[in-house]
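Retry 2 of 3 after timeout on previous attempt. Resubmitting structure tokens to design endpoint.
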């Protein structure tokens, strides 16, 4: 029964998303910040349990990144809507994810199954994205954003978003060219 605990935690993380977005858009920054931090902590806990005790599952492999992407999507859209993040950055983050998903679907359709592994640039991008949302939420809640930190984080998110998106396109394009002869029918 405990082997389902990571998926249960991931499911709870998904349930955090609607109240997080509601609090954010209602300018309830304290509760939004707490839910964002709890979501991040629960991501660490469910991942630890799945790895440590071998409680991995196909469902968890799908739900875990989906929960992370949905939370970040809502955070960026919400903060963009409030004017706390520039729209060009929100669009860049969303475009990168859309290109990755479209590329993965096209690759799967044309060439078959694949293993999607996060690239180091993508992991750095995720850290930068989370740091930016955390700093902005904390600043909105506590009043006053760190003057030099937010522009720096915005620049880092933009650079790592472009770098990781480009890396995914490059790597999967090369794999597609190499796999031309093995096209599925």
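Retry 2 succeeded. Sequence:
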């Amino acid at each position: 029964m405990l082997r389902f605990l990571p998926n249960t935690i991931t499911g709870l993380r998904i349930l955090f998303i609607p109240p997080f977005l509601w609090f954010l858009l209602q300018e309830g920054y304290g509760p939004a910040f707490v839910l964002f931090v709890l979501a991040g902590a629960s991501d660490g806990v469910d991942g630890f349990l799945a790895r440590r005790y071998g409680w991995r599952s196909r469902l968890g492999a799908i739900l875990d990144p989906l929960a992370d992407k949905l939370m970040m999507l809502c955070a960026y859209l919400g903060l963009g809507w409030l004017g706390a993040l520039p729209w060009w950055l929100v669009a860049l983050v969303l475009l990168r994810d859309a290109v990755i998903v479209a590329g993965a679907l096209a690759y799967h359709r044309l060439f078959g199954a694949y293993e999607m592994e996060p690239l180091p640039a993508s992991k750095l991008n995720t850290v930068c994205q989370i740091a930016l949302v955390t700093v902005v939420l904390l600043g909105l809640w506590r009043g006053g954003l760190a003057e030099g930190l937010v522009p720096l984080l915005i620049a880092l998110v933009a650079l790592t978003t472009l770098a990781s998106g480009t890396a995914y396109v490059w790597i999967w394009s090369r794999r597609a060219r190499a796999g031309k002869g093995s096209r599925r029918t």
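Attempt log closed. The chain has two domains: 1-82, 84-185.
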